[in-house]
Amino acid sequence: MNVKPSARRRPSWVVPVLAATLAVCLGLGVAALTRVQRPDHGAEALTNSAAAPAVPVSAAEFVVDPMGPETVTGPNVGEVTCDADGKIRIATPVVQAQHDGVHLRWTTRAKRTNVGWDEGGTAVAAGTQDLVVAAEPAKLTLTCSVDGNETMSEAALEVVDPTGSWMGERTNLICAGGIGAASWAIAPSVASTRREAVEDLAASMGLSGRSLLAIGRAPIGYVGSAQQTWTIDSSTAIAGTAPVAYAISVRRLAADRFEASPNWICMRGNVPDTGEPTYAPQGTVPAETPDIVDVSCADGRLQASTTTVRARAEGVVFRSTSSKEWALNWETRNGAGSARPIGATGATLTEQITPGTARLSCSDDRSAFVDLRVVDPDGMYLGSDLSHVCPALSVFDTDAQGWGNTPREAAMDLARRDQPRRTAVVSRAPLGYVASQWPAWTLRYQDPTSPAQELKLEVATVVPNDAGEAHFVARPEYWCES
Questions:
Q1: What percent of the chain has pLDDT over 70?
Q2: CA geometry: angle at 57 spanning 459 and 75, to 5°?
């Protein structure tokens, strides 16, 4: 995970729709990357952080947002029946969320029944219908009512998410000045991919060139949801003000048609103006672009089946066509890279390569390379840079760890052990691939007694645990202070 602050230019234009909002925002600090020691929170915190893993982890007493009983699993499809008189019956009290949401199988007896959930609903005919609901892991209330009958019955089930498919609500945006609504007079943009639709919308909003800092998928909703939230980060011409994130709703119209429309606005942290280039639009990506690269190595020279690859949810996938095991080297222009073994014919390797250009090779002779362009039209990559998000970015110097049977459990346990006297909200961080094996998480600490002096946001990485009872271990990496 590369979280090194990247420099940005400040443009010479003004965003009209946000002028009034920006004028009242507080001045924020300049982004910095420093080494810090964790504040002393007493002997209890130090003792807990060194303790052996406790599995299962009970997090109910310190986590603000309910994420359900993380150690409980259930079927991945909920069974719901609406009788002819509108009476609802739920056969699955606990349902495990899938990558694209909560799957519910409704069986209705009346000719026409209105079925509903916490934030939606629809009318269905008699029979069985499969619906996918974008409900967060928590208690979910379902309703039934027969058409023409005002009586409504309701029942609840518990949604659990042990695999971390749910990233968070809109409050998961890292906003220095809160989330605001705006009256938009901008028509939606439609294109053949999600990213292209967002890029077209940014152009129609007058955001281009040096003013455009970043475009990317936001850590909101389910990783495989058909409707996604993206952000367009833009700097402004008002001296001393922070960049602005426009939250964009992207929905599928057809197999290859997507619509992007603006939703909310959010203040970011300040960024130093060092004159480096900003976001370069990806543009149109042909539908036939492959999502896997066949690679081989012969006489120290790498051969690749394509020079452009479409990123998957888990990263960039390579497939070997060599007759024996060999090592694949890659490096990007920002200094990231890796050298890892890949097996013989048919073996695959998934790498966390950021969208852009990567140089591939298979020997010490780096002149025998292949340039691979990684494109992300589908919003599989959340980002690698927090500098346009955080007013101040620092690296932790601590040995604290958390453990759990799921990535979310491990992040929760880190919060409990490391900050035992604070409440915390645990969510996915806007870093890495949505289905990465090494996801980043944010731990938002709340302390109403001294909010101005306490840590606001901690970023931790969660990786598989090679030893011990717990399957995952969480380690703090960065903190972002507003």
A1: 78
A2: 100
